[in-house]
Write a structure and sequence with these properties.
The radius of gyration is 24 Å and the shape is globular. The longest helix is centred in the middle third of the chain and has 23 residues, at 264-286. Helix 1 (20-28) links the parallel strand 1 (5-10) and strand 2. It has three domains: 5-123, 3-Layer(aba) Sandwich (Rossmann fold); 126-158 and 203-286, Alpha Horseshoe (Serine Threonine Protein Phosphatase 5, Tetratricopeptide repeat); 297-474, DNA Cyclobutane Dipyrimidine Photolyase, subunit A, domain 3. It is built from 20 helices and five strands. It is mainly alpha-helical. The chain has a five-stranded parallel beta sheet, with helices on both faces.
């Protein structure tokens, strides 16, 4: 008797290892693996992420020996239709947690069930489900530290499940060889050439990136991760976002490496950072409006400034503050940005320029390879002070002092703002305050080779503090 045909719907889990939905599908019958590009939600995939997705799908298709089916359109229509066409008995997928996708998936389950098809979803993206780790009264935590302490004490990260055998029985794909190219994920203008030279999307690239981190970055992770020139970071976020490696596997590998190399404290700090990712998903699940609205409603009255000119200068890395500009140029050139620099450029936008955090969230969404609705929304609200466990209203990152402390020799700045290479280690952090003789010696003419500072840090800080204080007094 021929085996049942079962659907394996790949989404943000583009891997064979530690993929519970795939393992369930393999055990149930002959697998038809499919990816559906459904852009009918509130936050369609951004430009940088589209480049990554294209290459990640190519890598997954190769792992599946060319048998990954590709569809484009409304998954609520296409998945049940595919199941009916192939007389599938079951459909499996790993859960996503974006609000519009949760609603859509519920409809799909209802439709499949009505058609007599068993639909089963699993957790393949998180260490903890968002409905776990609640307070004693059943409500969600709004502060990270108690959430983390409770989760680690009561639900320590589970070990990853084994990798699927690459030779499992699949339904041969009858679609054309160019089906991934036909999704037109790659932009017409080749702006991604430098990004492509620095990344390897796919499960193999994720494993290599993780190995490189455990061998070369873990030993200095806790402190070194604050210094953008050091790169004592994992660089795993795009791989995690597209599910080319699971957070459980990343946590397990890093913990083992920490135990072997006596870096237990460093490994624990890495797992804590993974837990911040979990907390973002947890927060989005319980407060789904945060991707569009302030979590703290009093910020609806904040006097945000509409300043398209300053916004464009920020986006282009032309603010006159080298650390901010280096971060924004790194984002454009590489599709990522160092975490500390993300906080600094975010603070500069929402506090020094007083531009709404949603403008920053939208720009990051389009430019980041790891554009993730939960992380992006929660991080921007954290910087603005309007979200869960947010930075206090008076915490305003000074890009000059931050630069002096965390990039003392200007190594990071020199990489992304090369027009300032001739400046000394002191002057490079704030050219607008540098002596005219030093600027002349370095061949830097402000306003010609590099912009003057677009805002006064002290005055803009006072303006932001006054606005936040007024908001607090009203509350």
């Amino acid at each position: 008797m021929p085996a049942n045909t079962v659907i394996m719907w790949f989404r943000q889990d583009l891997r064979l290892s530690d993929n519970p939905a795939l393992l369930n599908a393999i055990q149930q019958g002959r697998v038809l693996p499919v990816f559906i590009l459904d852009e009918g939600n509130d936050w369609s995939i951004g430009g940088a992420s589209r480049w990554w997705l294209h290459h990640s799908l190519l890598a997954l298709n190769e792992s599946l020996q060319g048998n990954l089916w590709i569809l484009r359109g409304d998954a609520a229509e296409l998945l049940p239709q595919l199941a009916r066409e192939h007389s599938a008995s079951h459909a499996f997928w790993n859960r996503c947690y974006e609000p519009s996708i949760i609603r859509r998936d519920s409809l799909i389950k209802e439709q499949l069930t009505a058609d007599g098809i068993t639909a089963t979803s699993s957790n393949g993206s998180l260490i903890w489900e968002p409905w776990e780790n609640l307070k004693q009264d059943g409500t969600p935590y709004k502060i990270f530290t108690p959430f983390y302490k409770y989760a680690i004490a009561n639900n320590p990260p589970a070990a990853p499940s084994p990798a699927a055998n690459a030779n499992f029985d699949t339904v041969k794909c009858l679609q054309g060889k160019n089906r991934i190219d036909d999704l037109n994920l790659l932009p017409e203008i080749n702006w991604y050439e430098q990004i492509a030279s620095q990344w390897q999307p796919g499960e193999l690239g994720a494993r290599q990136r993780l190995q490189n981190f455990t061998e070369n970055g873990l030993y200095d992770y806790r402190d070194g991760r604050d210094y953008p020139a050091k790169r004592s970071v994992s660089m795993l976020s795009p791989h995690l976002h597209f599910g080319e490696i699971s957070p459980r596997e990343a946590a397990s590998v890093v913990k083992q490496a920490g135990d072997i190399d006596s870096n237990e404290e460093q490994a624990a700090h890495f797992i804590r950072e993974l837990a911040w990712r979990e907390f973002s998903y947890y927060t989005l699940y319980h407060f789904p409006h945060i991707c569009q609205q302030n979590m703290k409603s009093q910020f609806d009255r904040f006097p945000w400034v509409k300043d398209q000119k300053s916004l464009c200068l920020w986006q282009q890395g032309q603010t006159g503050f080298p650390l901010v500009d280096a971060g924004m140029r790194e984002l454009w050139q590489t599709g990522t940005m160092h975490n500390r620099v993300r906080m600094i450029v975010g603070s500069f936008l929402v506090k020094n320029l007083m531009i709404h955090w949603l403008e920053g969230a939208r720009w990051f969404w389009d430019c980041l390879l790891d554009a993730d609705l939960a992380n992006n929304s929660c991080s921007w609200q954290w910087v603005a002070g309007s979200g869960a466990d947010a930075a206090p209203y008076f915490r305003i990152f000074n890009p000059v002092t931050q630069s002096t402390k965390f990039d003392p020799e200007g190594s990071y700045i020199r990489k992304y703002v090369p027009e300032l290479n001739g400046l000394s280690n002191k002057a490079i952090h704030d050219p607008s305050s540098a002596a005219a003789s030093e600027l002349e010696k370095a061949g830097v003419i402000l306003g010609e080779h590099y912009p003057r500072a677009i805002v006064d840090l002290k005055e803009s800080r006072v303006r932001a503090l006054d606005a936040y204080k007024a908001l607090r007094d009203q509350a």
